[in-house]
Amino acid sequence: QLQLQESGPGLVKPSETLSLTCSVSDGSITSSFYYWGWIRQPPGKGLEWIGNIYYSGSTYYNPSLGSRVSIAVDTSKNQFSLKVSSVTAADTAVYYCARQRGYSYGWIDYWGQGTLVTVSS
Amino acid sequence: EIVLTQSPATLSLSPGERATLSCRASQSVSRYLAWYQFKPGQAPRLLIYDASNRATGIPARFTGSGSGTDFTLTINGLEPEDFAVYYCQQRSSLLTFGGGTKVEIK
User: What's the rounded Cα separation, in Å, for the pair B37 and B49?
Assistant: First the structure.
């Protein structure tokens, strides 16, 4: 059974860069037809799809987040990562990594448990 | 952006009862709709995709229906492990999620 695990700092200062890594186990990140993505949920608010990446490096982002977001993949480590620059309190959220199948906007068939990132000085 | 509106926000039911959850889209999403189950401390789980297809390992008591703008998730005979928060999600245009329905024990 595929497993995804988020890791990274739980506290980030305003204006700095949030960095998270997702480790994939019991499955290969280079499997065809799967995209590796990030979703977040601010406390008490709804879920927001951030974007995803294919193992080849092709990326797809939610336009609402502008150019502050970047997703990268490290196939040698079976990991992918998320960076959000110039963070504010509005970026405080539970961040989930996930696998999407079939398409860049495909269904999310596996999720990590999520990790809370708080933006505060 | 396609907005998904879920109702009710909270559903209070007893084990064994039927749960009926609604998801309405602001414009047609054809059948590009999924349902997910969220439980505290656990990885969320895909239940239904393409409006009515059960994901691998999902019990038959979970049924999805609908197309266009109106969708329903029905849970026939609630089990103790079914009390959770359920979200719908569309992929017709980018990916957006509904606000969720909490199914709680009455």
Answer: 12
Name the residue type at position A44: G
Cis ω before B8 (30° cut-off from 0): yes
The CA distance from B104 to B74, in Å, is 15
Tokens of A113: 């448990």
Confidence at A13, pLDDT banded by 50, 70, 90: very high
Q: Please give the structure tokens belonging to residue B67.
A: 């197309």
CB contact A109 to B (< 8 Å): yes
Q: Could you give the CA distance from residue A22 to residue B83 in angstroms, rounded to a whole number?
A: 28
- CA distance linking residue B44 with residue B51, whole number of Å: 18
Q: Is B14 helix (H, G, I), strand (E, B) or coil?
A: coil
Q: What is the pLDDT of residues B10-42, one digit of tens each?
A: 999 999 999 999 999 999 999 999 999 999 999
Hunting for tokens 């990326």 — which residue is that? A59
Give the separation between CA A28 and CA A45, rounded to whole angstroms: 32
Check CB contact under 8 Å for B49 and A107. Answer: yes
Under 8 Å between Cβ of A40 and A24: no
Q: CB of B55 within 8 Å of any CB in chain A?
A: yes
A4 touches chain B (CB under 8 A): yes
Which residue matches tokens 């990590």? A112
Cβ distance B27 to B33 under 8 Å? Answer: no
Which residues, 6 or more positions from A34, have their beta carbon under 8 angstroms from its beta carbon?
A54, A55, A99, A100, A101, A102
Could B87 and A47 be called an inter-chain contact, meaning their C-beta atoms sit closer than 8 Å? yes
